[in-house]
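Write out this protein's structure.
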Amino acid sequence: MSPPAQPNTSGDPGRPASPSARSDRVAPEPAAGRTAPSTVSAPAGVSAKRIAQLALPALVVLAAEPLYVLVDTAVVGHLGSVPLAAVAVGGTIMSVAAWLGTLMAYGTTGRAARRFGAGDRAAAVAEGVQASWLAFAVGVLLALLAQPFADPLAQALSGDPAVADAAATWLRVAALGAPGLLLAAAGNGWMRGVQDTRRPLFYVLGANVLSAILCPVLVYPVGWGLTGSAVANVVAQSVSGGFFLYALIRETKHLRPHLGVIGQQLSLGRDLLIRGAAFQACFLSATAVASRFGVESVGAHQIALQLWFFSALALDAVAIAAQSLVGAALGGSNAAEARAVARKVTLSGGLAGVVFALLAAAGSSHIPGWFTPDAEVHDQAAVIWPWFIGLMPFAGVVYALDGVLIGAGDVKFLRNITLAAALLGFLPAIWIAYFFDLGLGGVWAGLALLILIRFVTTVWRWRSDRWAVVGATR
């Protein structure tokens, strides 16, 4: 955990460091290129140790949710191929909520970090208050919409009626966790912005450990089957969201919604929203195509995709540190420090990607068996594995640079390159795979195009220095 504005002597991690650090108001935005009077400054000369201090707790937070999903996938996989495929379809639909959560966390981190770096912790926390109102409203809306639309969505993504019916049942229950999921995302966003990654570690990890224990109990001894998996999801997300809400209430007395600030967040999040929509179109289409190749294919795709998401979010820990440190440095008008952080996190991301590739290669003959005993699913997973291994080092660099550019507020550029990679690479490739019956290899070739196009363009942008715009706002 990074040092707050003043040492925390309260002994209670839920309390602010001091009255002066409390967010008791919604602070006005400083003009671009200017900073507020400094009470909190970004640390000078960011070192690899400092990056690690932010990245390692963020790693646990990021890994907790996908690790729970992997446990859930393993538990459900032993019910049979149809329940496993149902979780693949239902989980893909629920990933829309997770995507909105990531969008909310990243957007809030960038805005809060700039204000923190400019010396105004109160304004940084105020961003979290308004983001939490937005998160709760969107989460409730998603939970309500899932009830009537679960059946048509599951049928659209599944090529098997039994899978579609099971997926819809799972989705109706799992969607009830959307408000908690999004509240936790908003909480993560403002806490990362003020460089507090310790409390989120306890909040998220505690909730997911509880749910990982509940999942096998509800699925097997209690006998709820697939529904038990969904209930365990709801428990984890609701408990985690409650922790972050409690932390926000302890941090500030002013919790009223301010539509003007929420509107600014929505406006500045537009590019991230479009970028995220492109990713969702890609992965929803990939699951739909994999489903058309058979139950075993979509089961293998689910295993590999969840491992990919797990690896991606773990690699994203470096990007979280980059968002916070780059945003704070630019908010404090220190472009040189922002560029130094960018160099270090890019190297760290690439090395981490190589480590993940080596681990995946070493476990290639064993990992699919952790999730299902079905030999045909194992055969399909073997088709995917070379793609998985080969892409990891490139993905490590891409995710690190995503963090740099989001922290810098350069999201318009990220929007444009993501749209290009999706429309010119991923989507054409997977639909060509469908029409020419190329199987899962064709689907994952599409993912390779998505990653490689983003790799080339983000490295070019990083080297150009056009992203390093200083000021409390951009």
